[in-house]
Design brief:
Blueprint: H1 2-44, H2 49-54, H3 65-73, H4 80-111, H5 117-128, H6 136-145, H7 153-156, H8 163-176, H9 179-187, H10 192-203, H11 205-220, H12 224-229, H13 238-244, H14 254-275, H15 277-286
Helix pairs in contact: 1-14, 3-14, 4-8, 4-11, 5-8, 8-15, 9-10, 11-14, 11-15, 13-14
Length: 290
């Protein structure tokens, strides 16, 4: 009997080791597949156009980085500091408005009981199904009629209504926030905004950080809407400036394009490194209902 028990325990241990080994191998492969495009992009920014055209994928750094930087400086449509400034202002504004007002809306849906609560949440869910391009023509016409074309505010203010983020925040609150805490704060005389800002928001930090990353990255990489609304070079964002590097009809400098892409991706990497520790806890808690 003891021999059988020992054999079963040994078999389970071997299965566990094999399972962990498979998991580690799969995770390693996925990590390599995720990092490889960024690595190729960074390496190609140090290579010449001829080298890139000969071998598009290479993991050996080149020696043309300084030359690519000098070529990039000669491009009249590319101004890294201006592009970074415009993209940072728009992305930061979008992130702050989207995260705060989505959290506030989710808090109202979760905490209060009112007649149209289910209907309102159903409306939010329905809006999630509409692609943004469907409303783009009407949005542009409204901006044009109110003389708001080429105004960065029109890229920031719509972030107040973010249905997907409202849905995520509500799901998070169901698993993380106890209504007894809110009731206790009300009994102690705290106002609704004070309760939300001082009690609820700290509880929602993981979810807010997770959504902040998604909102910032989405806004920073947004090309379609800024390309439609912004028609002055002083208002161009980084994606627009990088796209214009590919518009030279005489010669396309691929090294410059990869260098511009690397400069565009750098702030996103920094934001991710600063907030990445909240992603796992935010997604995990947001998927668990109390």
């Amino acid at each position: 009997m003891a021999t059988n028990t020992t054999a079963m325990a040994s078999s389970k241990a071997k299965d566990s080791i094999i399972f962990k080994t498979v998991i580690y191998i799969v995770c390693t492969i996925l990590a390599i597949l995720s990092i490889a495009p960024f690595l190729v992009m960074l390496i190609n920014s140090t290579r010449s156009t001829a080298q890139i055209m000969a071998h598009a994928v290479s993991f050996i750094p080149g020696s043309q980085l300084k030359n690519n930087i000098n070529l990039l400086k000669t491009k009249k449509t590319f101004n890294a500091l201006l592009g970074m400034k415009n993209s940072f202002i728009i992305s930061t504004g979008v992130t702050v408005l989207a995260v705060y007002f989505s959290s506030l809306t989710a808090y109202a849906i979760y905490t209060y009981d009112w007649k149209l609560k289910k209907a309102f949440f159903s409306l939010v869910m329905g809006i999630m199904m509409l692609p943004g391009t469907v409303t783009m023509i009407g949005f542009y016409r409204a901006c044009y009629q109110f003389h708001l074309v080429n105004n960065r505010l029109m890229l920031i203010l719509p972030a107040i209504a973010s249905p997907m983020m409202v849905f995520f925040m509500r799901q998070y609150l169901e698993g993380a926030l106890s209504l007894e805490i809110v009731e206790s704060a009300r009994i102690d005389g705290a106002g609704e905004f004070r309760t939300f800002n001082t009690i609820v928001l700290p509880i929602m930090k993981p979810a807010m950080a997770t959504q902040a990353i998604f909102a910032f990255v989405g806004s920073w990489n947004n090309f379609f809407l800024p390309m439609i609304l912004l028609n002055k070079k002083e208002s161009y964002t980084m994606p627009i400036m990088v796209s214009l590097l590919n518009g030279d009809i005489y010669k396309t400098e691929f090294g410059c394009i990869y260098l511009g892409l690397s400069m565009t991706a750098l702030p996103l990497i920094i934001v991710y490194l600063l907030l990445s520790k909240y992603i796992v806890s935010g997604v995990a808690l947001g998927s668990v209902k109390g």
